[in-house]
Amino acid sequence: MGQSQQTGSCEEIDVKALQDMYKKFVLECPSGVLFLHEFKRFFGVHPTGEASDYAENMFRAFDKNGDNTIDFLEFVAALNLVFRGDLEHKLRWSFKVYDKDGNGYVDRNELRSIIDSIYQIKKYSKKDKSESHLTVDEVVERILDAVDFDRDGHITLEEFVKGAQQDPWVLNMLRLDMNPAGWVLENRRKSAHF
User: Fold this and answer.
1) Cα(51)–Cα(44) distance, rounded to whole angstroms?
2) What global pTM score does this model have?
3) Are the C-beta atoms of 148 and 89 separated by less than 8 Å?
4) 92/4 Cα distance (integer angstroms)
5) Is the pLDDT of residue 105 over 80?
């Protein structure tokens, strides 16, 4: 075996980088798994701060097998998606963040909860200066109008992906979710300054 491994998307994963990530992961998580409180600490998120709910939903989306921990393979798979995945794969991952109870659809309350978390993060990071100032409820209604094609009050995975791909405003509203790595890096930098 050489220094790189082919993936399904024909991109190479650098074995040395993977080894370095594993060393850092084990240093932070000697047990070999990351629990929610460690995940928040690892990414510099205060347990009850503005980004706490969002971090919990990211954690749940990373936890592929549902055992309330993230092992190294789950961690690498999520990072690979974030850095190398195409738009549809990233939207599918984002859907998991929004579908808090894992029932296969996003209802109004789940959508509102995540949009509220995103608003809190944007307010905290002061990145929301140029956008129109819609309320959380106005954003929720506008997203539901744009993507709930059968008007049943629930957004399926297919509606979520198709709606975001067809409506630039909806995709823009999901932008924070589309780049969790950027959000994580930004929060790590902020926590290093405290």
Assistant:
1) 10
2) 0.68
3) no
4) 27
5) yes
